Structure prediction request, 1106 residues.
Amino acid sequence: MPVNKPVTQSSRRIAGSRLLARWLLGAEWRSHPARAIVAIATIALGVALGYAVQLINSAAFNEFSAAAKSLSGEADLQVRGAQPHFDESWYPRLATEPGVALASPVLDLDVTVPGQSAALKVLGIDVFRASRITPELIGVPSAQRPLDTLSEDAIFLSPAAQQWLHAAPGEHVALRSGTSTVQFRVAGGIVRTRPGQRIAVMDIAAAQWRFGLEGKLSRVDLQLQRGVDRERFKRELQDRLGSQLVIAETRDDENRTDRLSRAYRINMNVLALVALFTGAFLVFSTQALAVVRRRAQFAMLRVLGFTRGQLLRQILMEGALLGVIGSVLGLALGYALSSVALRFFGSDLGGGYFPGVQPHVGFEPLASAVFLALGIGVSVLGSLVPALEAARARPAAALKAGSEEGALARLSTPWPALACIAVAGILTLLPPLFDVPILGYLAVALLLIGGIALMPRCTAIVFTALSRWRTKRSTRATTTLALARLANAPGQASIAMGGVLSSFALIVAMAIMVASFRVSVDEWLTHLLSADLYVRVAPNGDTGGLSPGEQAALAAASGVRNAAFTRTSRLTLDPARPAVALLARDIDAADPGALMQMTGPVLSPSALHDGETPIWVSEAMVDLYRYKLGQRLRLSIGASGGTFVVAGIWRDYVRQTGAIQLRLADYRRLTDDTGATDVAVTIKRGASVESVIASLRKLPFGTAMEFAQPGDIRARTLTIFDRSFAVTYLLEAVAIVIGLFGVAATFSAQTLARAREFGMLRHVGVTRRQVLVILAAEGGMLTALGIAMGFILGWAISLILVFVVNPQSFHWSMSMHIPWSVLSTVALVMLISSCATAVVAGRKAVSLDAVRAVKEDW
Amino acid sequence: MRHFSVTVEDCKPVQLIDDPILMTLRTNDVPPALECRGLSKAYGAGRVLLASLDFALDPGEFVAVMGDSGVGKSTLLNLIAGLDTADSGEVLIDGTSISSLDDDAATRLRRQKLGFVFQAFHILPHLTLVQNVALPLLLNNTAPSRALDLLEAVGLGGRGDDFPRQLSGGELQRVAIARALVHRPTLILADEPTGNLDPDTAHEVLSLFRAEIKANGAAAIMVTHSMAAAASADRILILSEHGLHAGK
Prediction:
């Protein structure tokens, strides 16, 4: 016979609080599903954008990095020249260094391909050496011609390169060498390359000869003997080699790739997170208004025995649940978005940082966890202030109707807001962390939070003053009522205005930053493009160039008054950083500002000592290498190098990794390199640009040149500028739409919550139309104040973006420009849409039966 | 049927707890459901609302408190419920001093020992009737099945899944009464429970209220302006600036 267990009190106890929590949550979501959906959608969109950008950047960076690393193979160290090429006599010295097991010489060239906008990477290798260090980068000849790996006319192309050049094995490809075109036979593929990696390999001796670089190497890959201390070996070898050569490790490749795109990737991530920030504000306003609306209900629960802790947990749990659902949806959406974006827009989203890779989006557990936590975090944070207020409220007082504004009284305390603004001010003075303006971004966030938090106080001050001023002059009921409400219920008004403020502040900040940048770039281009015609021989790659004879022929061509030649090269100062650009031009040392946009004073030629060579460095050199005006330093330019003096600092919007300019004559004296890559042509009076181009095309090397007029270059540059900012605009637009959506939702919720007030007004004789006028007046005045405050806040944020974040990210400065017409238009649109939203929501509120509205209990 | 023709003049002096005989009896007896000792409360600039109030309620006793507006009736209920803090004195619920407890402990005591009925009903609008009634049970981690019994008892059997918007004022107050009694509290605090109801409905609700508190063995203290309502109580106390005095 079964024995029944005694039914004790404890065994009958149930998890009542959990059931109650579910009931309360279900009741709230059932009664206001639209608000929950809006909050979830907002979080989902914010997380999705952030996660998608992270996935795209990560996939692109990893693939780019893997492709770069694949070029190093199994090398322990790489010895490179400070300049792109160095004498091959170094190779036997390095191969016989004690501790070196194997040395493999490499000629690494970015070769210009006629008719293509990008260069082809060609590696000249010693196949016997390379097969042991970079075995994946060996050409695979056909069985019939096994010696093609040593053939002077054979080149091996990766699958992506074959596809790009439409050249199958057995066919020929044309590549540029100087102003000539050289033909190669495609002898086969490469053992293994990354998807999308465009690369070619050939015999090193053949590469030296065919590209006019006899006796030159780009690097020597070293494999060390077992037991050799790599760090010590590296240090001692560097001492012996001097500054002409630099020793890099495989990890330096990753560092270079990382530094090249870090600022861009972080900026994109931060921009994507702005949407999540505005989403957090929307959650805050939704939760704050819900708490105000449910104030008496919470008080009732407290009376019945809900503890403060339980109430706090309940509200935070409601917020967290919005965050969980929104974040999970956001992760799924972000994954889908990133796949679509990679397919249709490419891996660099228009930024141009990851050319020639075909990354694939993969699930990233860590990033997923971070964005899940971020989504939940902002949602919980958005709920925290309302939850704390609800838990603090005294139940007896909160049960009474009309205590709603008291719930928001704490919002008007200005000190936390002022503290945020003060800390933001201090953060703008601090240097970047890890070369990234983390503190600058933090300052922007704090300024925004501080500005928004200051609004209740500002609202009260402005509208109280306005109310007093108005009362003395007019007794119109509708205006008096609207102003009284704004003056005496600043907490609720501020929540609505917060949405306007944050949206408009972000619009202003971004618009000023982008306008400042664009106008500065435009002015810079105008300054730079002073010639009538620009000629390029090596528009991409580093194998093109004009010989002295060709330069003379060009200068003597019909219609040419003056031809100013430039030799572009690279200089490696730190193996862990990308190489800096070296530009040799005809610079007048007494007036460098004629060619460059200088950012400050310049050093007079008389300040130079004998044997010193002046150089002019870009702003990035100041940030990255701590160069200063007047500083004397040694650079490995040419075999003998020499002492160089920083004679000025110029603005450069192209090369964020740094650039150095020196006089062409100095460069030629130091390097014996008499070639030229670019020419600025001034035409004779009376001659047309078209006729000069025609005469230049008739030169023997005419087909190797590309021509561009200043207007074309300017237009093309600004198109690239706009394209690279397209994603920025898109992300900002989403953030702004979320913000405006928040404004609409907040106005709507507040208006509907005031149905009882409107019912009372209707009882005492206020017409429906007058109620709508009151609402429109409130919405209009509130939005106008929000716009005014938003402009001030946005302007302050733009100062941080223009003078802190941008210089720290990209190492260039710009001047401020405010796009008044754009901002006025947006302000007007916001003003109209806010008034319209208030009125539309008001029509619903006043459509309720006035008697029923007054009796409404909650 | 009870009569509602009681006037203030009919009221008798209050039975104070410092009655030596009563005190002796109680020393060896169950504690009173409610005991107020020297309860004082002042607001603002020395505006004394309650001054050294002493009184007690026996288990199962139903007392009405009357008085002019602003005399402190609601404040008295708030002090008893631990929702407000007295300047001096203490309140004992079923022998436990609620005045000495922190907020969480006072809340736990309130959820176990007290039930509430308000003039404005305060029924949560988006919970069903049975969910509203079950709230105190859930807060006490008790199975909510008794909620249906109480709804049945107040004449709303079969309407447990209805929402408050579907109910009249009188029906809403019946739900509030069910909610106040469902967890078998020691003491019910009712603040103007018929203030929003018409006389007939008020009569009905009061009859039900009295019957249910008696059936459940709870003590009750009801604040009201209505003589008719007060007449339903076992005794009436008049709160004035001079203190608490007995009515009938």
In short: Chain B touches chain A through 33 residues (CB under 8 Å). Confidence is low (pLDDT under 50) at residues 1-28 of chain B. Helices of chain B lie at 20-27, 73-81, 103-113, 129-139, 146-153, 169-181, 199-216, 227-230. Chain B is about 35% helix and 25% strand.
